[in-house]
Amino acid sequence: MNESTFLQTLYHRNKKCYQVFPDKHATESFIDDLFHLCFVPKNNGLGGLMAIQRDYADLKVRFQSIVSGFLPDAKAIDDITNQFFEKIPEVYEVLLADAQAILSSDPAAQSLEEVLVAYPGFFATAVYRFSNVLWHLNLRLLARLLTEIAHSKTGIDIHPGATIGHSFSIDHGTGVVIGETCILGNNVKLYQSVTLGALSVDKKDATTKRHPTIEDNVVIYSGATILGGDTIIGHDSIIGGNVWLTYSVEPFSVVYHKSEVKVRDNNPFPEPLNYVI
Amino acid sequence: MNESTFLQTLYHRNKKCYQVFPDKHATESFIDDLFHLCFVPKNNGLGGLMAIQRDYADLKVRFQSIVSGFLPDAKAIDDITNQFFEKIPEVYEVLLADAQAILSSDPAAQSLEEVLVAYPGFFATAVYRFSNVLWHLNLRLLARLLTEIAHSKTGIDIHPGATIGHSFSIDHGTGVVIGETCILGNNVKLYQSVTLGALSVDKKDATTKRHPTIEDNVVIYSGATILGGDTIIGHDSIIGGNVWLTYSVEPFSVVYHKSEVKVRDNNPFPEPLNYVI
Amino acid sequence: MNESTFLQTLYHRNKKCYQVFPDKHATESFIDDLFHLCFVPKNNGLGGLMAIQRDYADLKVRFQSIVSGFLPDAKAIDDITNQFFEKIPEVYEVLLADAQAILSSDPAAQSLEEVLVAYPGFFATAVYRFSNVLWHLNLRLLARLLTEIAHSKTGIDIHPGATIGHSFSIDHGTGVVIGETCILGNNVKLYQSVTLGALSVDKKDATTKRHPTIEDNVVIYSGATILGGDTIIGHDSIIGGNVWLTYSVEPFSVVYHKSEVKVRDNNPFPEPLNYVI
Amino acid sequence: MNESTFLQTLYHRNKKCYQVFPDKHATESFIDDLFHLCFVPKNNGLGGLMAIQRDYADLKVRFQSIVSGFLPDAKAIDDITNQFFEKIPEVYEVLLADAQAILSSDPAAQSLEEVLVAYPGFFATAVYRFSNVLWHLNLRLLARLLTEIAHSKTGIDIHPGATIGHSFSIDHGTGVVIGETCILGNNVKLYQSVTLGALSVDKKDATTKRHPTIEDNVVIYSGATILGGDTIIGHDSIIGGNVWLTYSVEPFSVVYHKSEVKVRDNNPFPEPLNYVI
Amino acid sequence: MNESTFLQTLYHRNKKCYQVFPDKHATESFIDDLFHLCFVPKNNGLGGLMAIQRDYADLKVRFQSIVSGFLPDAKAIDDITNQFFEKIPEVYEVLLADAQAILSSDPAAQSLEEVLVAYPGFFATAVYRFSNVLWHLNLRLLARLLTEIAHSKTGIDIHPGATIGHSFSIDHGTGVVIGETCILGNNVKLYQSVTLGALSVDKKDATTKRHPTIEDNVVIYSGATILGGDTIIGHDSIIGGNVWLTYSVEPFSVVYHKSEVKVRDNNPFPEPLNYVI
Amino acid sequence: MNESTFLQTLYHRNKKCYQVFPDKHATESFIDDLFHLCFVPKNNGLGGLMAIQRDYADLKVRFQSIVSGFLPDAKAIDDITNQFFEKIPEVYEVLLADAQAILSSDPAAQSLEEVLVAYPGFFATAVYRFSNVLWHLNLRLLARLLTEIAHSKTGIDIHPGATIGHSFSIDHGTGVVIGETCILGNNVKLYQSVTLGALSVDKKDATTKRHPTIEDNVVIYSGATILGGDTIIGHDSIIGGNVWLTYSVEPFSVVYHKSEVKVRDNNPFPEPLNYVI
To answer: End-to-end CA distance of chain F, in Å?
Structure first.
């Protein structure tokens, strides 16, 4: 394929895409500014309430612009915009409770402000909660794009279709994966590299519940993997680090990985340990 | 060292560097725009083919500018630019096959468009394939910089010198590491936190094959680690989650980590599990 | 809560925050430019020493602006600014030694320049070392914000309060977590997904040493987890991949995870391995 | 004065100025955007009414920011902002009548839209009318700055303190000067390089009426100069090109400059005419 | 009219305008970049021919975007774009001859480069010549907008419908006005504040020739005014400064304003001269 | 000439120009920022002296960059930069005296700040004085470009080679032209549309004194034209509006244009006055 044919190809493929693609950069700055307006004020407060009203009005117009490409007409754009923004105050209150849960459970957190400004788990949760509203408004590609933006910034990959209760917290978070049909109760806490995944590989099973249910007050430590749509982690359980679990456990369970560690206290080092990665 | 001496030091060190450093920000926006031109069109299609031609011409000029700092003369700049851009149509077709492979194997993926716009594994693969061309044109620092940019955005760290066959897919992807001398066949699928690493630590062995070979149709689940230049994973094998492997396995192997998990169904919690991280 | 009440709520909450929040975007571009001035020169050297002096003066003014919101008066702003910038030359020299350590120990690294421009471990270390100065100047929220910025870019989460000796190196790095009260000696090397965490969960224990001590010349391979404030890894030890350790080991120890891996060489695949994540 | 002393001098002078100077660039983009919102819409209409509300809210916040430097407190800022914006709809209607007057009297004007987008006389009139509101709100330096911005763009210099009736038109306009205490009636039309100036030179006379009065339905052709606070041009008069007038004329007067022109029909050219400028 | 009604009014008025208004800012940067590409190269030449091709392709796309609002369909946009750009090489050559004429006739001009970069008369002429092409392609509002942009920058107001021969020059230029139906021959030179205007005021006469004809090799000095559609200035004539002319003169005429100047060599000053403006 | 040939032509012409052209946009923002640093502070004073030092250092680097294209080597660039910046404090003081002269002589000026921020005559004078330094450093094209920038913004065209004494003031200013070899004494005041021009047309006379000399304490009213290298306006003279003068006058002269104005007090209007322009 020479350059001229290649550019023709791009042109014809791209034309088809204008109807379905949200603008990635516009979407990224939209969610960033929505998050900042709610939790991390950007300016010095001079404009006061007037400035907040202006910024909120601006977010609405930008949202209209983002969704305009893949909705049929101006009325649909206005309806979706109104439905999304009507939900924001409610989502905001749920998120403040999430932030409070992080503050309560992490000894290193010194203030609610630190949680808002410097906890990637809080940011990923916020983007998930906004995206989940869009998912239920049937803006699925936009919802997925938003959680991917949060994934890119935080290493935390929450599917917008997942169901997560209140007072949810993630600490550190890099490597966390939460699948589409997960159901999480209230007061769940996850550490880094936790996977809540599926067992079914068949594309025809895409609409069934493929991911686990985590009941209230469960803590899951770093590196744990829980798989399967029928797997239920009973409430008030603790799942230890690196555990690999494909079946249900009762409420109040404590699950831990029995790891055998060998220590050799004298040198020279055994050769197979001298690797680099 | 006082401020004045410090700035002098920076000045003398930096002067030396102008010959060897690609401009990080220019490189970042170059690869971002190249990816978008090929897969995620940015504008509303008004300019049509003319706009695509303009954008492609612009990418060429920006590429020239990026490589101009570390090539000897205008002719070398033009030659490298032409060689790189001649390869792009071919890389584009290979990447469309990668996207198709992701769509086929992930039940959560709803359309090819979703894969193009919202799968970090696809983005990292694309940047790797473009970088690999540069690696073979001997622009090694630039190639490395590009894959580091993808690493920063996706948590997926693929060395530009690696060899990867067609229909390659990575899901979620955070924490994936693929070393310089890896050889991957066709239809390989990786999940998050997979490491394909080396065993040799000695700097003098830097030019030997230090990383494993993965044959066709292999799936490697999350958290698996495969190490060593002589390690070959035979075709049509499955490597389970958290497996740690430093030797070869036959074709059609199924390898899984035999994990012992203990469950205690009554509280109070044993003290050593009450940790935070 | 209707829109009007919601915006009033944001207004009143945000007003309180102006005194305590550093501007996230200004902080992000500040640390990025400081890093580039020191290690990855951006322009073509034309302006020479004059340009470096100008850029350094610019960084000072921007630093003043960032800290101005949460310091009482102009004198405090000037004092903190001077104290921070006086430390920079010293931090710079320590960081060059870190870069040299990475170059020496990684066979894939081809030049010091590659380390400076394309190693996320080096970037995260640099941001940590600058933040650590701020932590000791009692600018704790700003210090935390800075390391979170590095976490977002690299997947490496180092608390600014941690203590880390010279010639420190991290390779790949995605998923690394280093807690607030960790103490690391000299010549420590970490791979991806290493966690150095705490065992205590009680908020009242926030001021005690909750994270481990790693002595000189220790290497910790990918996926290893070391927990607890009393845990000491003796000097010249090697901690293998995926090891989970909650107690001390002697100097010159070699610790490895005894992993049982099962291989079945004939198909059909056992059902429970056919999962997706 | 060496550089160090010079910068100290600037610092001390400038500090005094922060209280009294509106920000020139912010002011320039404010008036430009206010004019465009009212008369020359910038975008493609997608955002609809919502976008106009947002832009108007934005203009208010920016106005607050511009005046914040030289008003005593937040209440004064809010009051002035409200008073100015309450006047805008009224000014808007007067300006539409001005545009209509231009369209009616200029055979080259093809549509009202052409007048709005491409007549510098209309732009200068619009800026004058907005500035005149500010002048009467006692924001005199800001008002002056605004008309200077229009002067710079159009070559038309109207003092914000001047009084001008409805249906006012200026054609071409370069070089027009209208002084502070001028009073112009309705349906006045001016051509380029018309000066309406003062006769008094004494600083102590700064508060008296120093500039002429032009009654309704007067046309003043290019290059005419009319001077003096007691000079009254009676209604329905015509003032010819290049007229120099320092006394009053009756209503329905026609005033013209009796110019003697000499023509010599054969060459060579007389030397004193061979000049360049 | 309250604010809400006012914004509704703007909304309804503006909606009507989207079909007819070219975007003022896009137009301004388009003509600026076209002028610079042709005469005042902006960059350092690195990109070479490739960069010029890219910039030219970019100008085409931007032109398409500017005219897209007021043309019926994609085909019309493409046709107009192609017709305009096909004329550019020819216009370019005529403009180089204009620049050469300025260089030859102005003793202060030291090089052709100085004329290209620093003569407002040359810039205004260039914009006029480009606009004149658009005028004849029936893009009249766009053509007018372009000459108004040049008017704003230079104080020189040339109507895009005027007809001007080759080797045309304007020196200084502030205040020059050239009307729509003027016809100027070759080698005409104008100084600042020259008006070539109309005598007819009636809107119904808008389509007749209302402005004068200036034949070849005429020089018109500063402040001269020539009016009327039947007025013809014969070739090789000189029109002196401040002349006011409403009738034709023969070829080789020399026309000068017989100005009576009085000098009083002793003080005190007569009161009527002590004016300010 | 087809498009391909045309772009080749531009490429070859432009290549030649890179050595001689200052970058117009960089030059424009340089002079704007230099003016603002000296007279109209942009920010809110937070950065204090440190910010001024940074901005001054920045101006030096940008000046280096502007002149780098047409100077032979780094040493020449440094020398010219130092020589120009050493002159700035002195020019600054002369300009403050100019501003004071404007304040004293214009009854409409209410404060020194108004003069600095809103008098185009002051801006044009400032740019002239900076350009005059460059003219004498032999950077003639750059000096001309700077005064053209001021001409474009203010309509005031002062040649950088002119010689102008202290306490110089221009009011309104649109249309003022001051030629290259003019010599103006101290306390000279000009109004709008004053021309100080040449009589010689011959290119070979380009190096002789072609423009007039204006001695101390002279006022020249609007529209006056004074021509010729031998023309000397004696000190303490007044030149009235619209005067056309090509010979010298004694000190203490009062020169005025004896204008005959006819008034007809009854209608209908005589046809020849019913013109439009």
So the answer is: 38
